[in-house]
Amino acid sequence: MQKIIFYVVVSLCFFVSKITAQETFEQRAKTIAQNIEFITKEEKQALKDQVDDINKQLEMGRLTQEQADKMKIEVATVQAKKIEDRVALEQEKLNALVQEKVEGKISDTTKTRKKHRFGITVSGGELNEEGKEKRTTSQFVIAGGVNNLVTDGAVANSDFGYLRSVFYEWGFTKRTRLAKESNLLHFKYGLSFMYNIVAPTDNRYFVDNGKETVLETFPVDLRKKDTYFKNVYIAVPLHLEFDFSKKSVKEGKKFYKSHDGFRLGVGGFAGYNINSKQFLSYEVDGYRIKEKQKGSWNVNDWNYGLSSYIGWGQTSLYAKYDLSPLFKDNPVEQNNVSLGIRFDLN
User: Fold this and answer.
1) Which of 70, 131, 307, 343 could lock 253 by a disulfide, CB 3.0 to 4.6 Å apart?
2) Global pTM value
3) Mind listing the UniProt keywords for this protein, alphabetically (predicted)?
């Protein structure tokens, strides 16, 4: 049993030593610098605490001003010596590291892969000369605004209320920087749920007569704010995004900021209809009645279109237009169009 424990310990030590050897020159130098900074802060805080204690004794009359000044000089000398001794050890490590670098015993980069052994986690990734850069980021997207149907190529004199017809959308996206050395171009893709709502005017509602879907006058007065036709789609949006956010430089490394400047996205979407419902609200003999009618309504199962956004930071003006008509067999094609505000939240 003792032999087994011995071999396990030796193997573990060897494994850890291999991991340490794979650290880059930059990583080890940074660790030494952080140690020196920690030592300095720790000893300065210790000096401050001792000086505060001396000042308290002076205020309580336990020490004279002369004694207090002398003690402050003594503790300052002691702490300075501690800093010097502890930093000297780190300086020796740095000198040895530089020597290894000169002799070619240590590389600039590491390709260590993430591993899990004996409960020890080692993580790493390929680093370039400018430092570690995250090229793909995630966003939660939410958008909303006005919506309508383009009929005969126009939205003027629409059969649907301009302010009562709305859209909203939410989903998740990924954004990948295309060029290694430039933050300008990104490919943005994801999954969204799109809700397109139109509210007919003049007390009308949609009727499926078997051949086409048309608007007809409802026999009693409809409550405008509670009467509308809603279609829900699950869609895949794809955009080429131009991001003019400036890169930042920290400790000699370049970092590309996300959603921190002027942005322009152009692209489109493709989706599938998962729900079509008509909501009606009216009163009969003093009773308020609400109907929820679910059906196909001859709505196209698939929809696709163009979309674009332009803005600053995480906020953009957003527009989308369906190239596919809303209804399958209607003699006059009607295409959905939306305009609103979009938020891409990192």
Assistant:
1) 131
2) 0.61
3) Coiled coil, Signal
